[in-house]
Description:
Blueprint: H1 2-7, E1 15-18, E2 24-27, E3 32-38, H2 49-66, E4 70-75, E5 79-84, H3 92-105, E6 118-122, H4 125-141, H5 156-161, H6 172-185
Amino acid sequence: MAFYSLLQDHRRGPTISRMTQGLRRYQFSGDLHFVTFSCYQLRPYLASSAARDLFEQALERTRLRYEFFVIGYVVMPEHVHLLLSEPKQYSLAKVLHALKLSVSKLSRQRPFWQSRYYDFNVFSGRKHVEKLRYIHRNPVKRGLVPEPMDWRWSSFRHYATGERGIVGIESFWTAALREHASSQRS
Length: 186
C-alpha cells in the first residue's frame, strides 16, 4: 500500500517500549496503530454530544500539532478507538498523553482517563481494513445507532461520502483531493 511507504520516510528505525506486566509497544516502526483508551473506571464521560465534540476538536488540534495521520476513529460514551500513523517527531505515547491531557483539562471530571491504553501495530492492508471496520461498526454493535452513518462521532461518514468533519482523515478521498489540487497547479 502506498500509504505505508509514505509513513516510513521519516522513521528512525523500530523501537520497542517495555511496559509493566509484559506489555510491549512497538513504536517508530512505520506501522499504523490501532489504539483504544477508556474513561476512568469506564464511566460514560463522553456520553453527551458536547463531550464527544470536545474530544474531536482536541484530536484535530493534536493531529495538526504533532503531525500524524488519523485514518479512522470513533468516540464512544466511555472509550475511544483510533487508527493512526506514528507522529513525525514524537513517540505515540507522548502524543496520546497530550491528547488525553487536553481533553481532561477542559472537563470537570477528575480523573477523566484510565492511565493506560491498548496499542496494536497494524502491519498489513488486511489488518488495516479489519480495524477500520471494527471502529465503524462499534456504535452499531453497542446498539447506539442502527447504521454506522447515524453515529456522527466517527470517520465513517468521511469514508462513505467524502464528508469533511472536525477531524482531518487520511483516506482515498483526501489523496484524490491532493492529486486534483496538484494537477490544477501544473
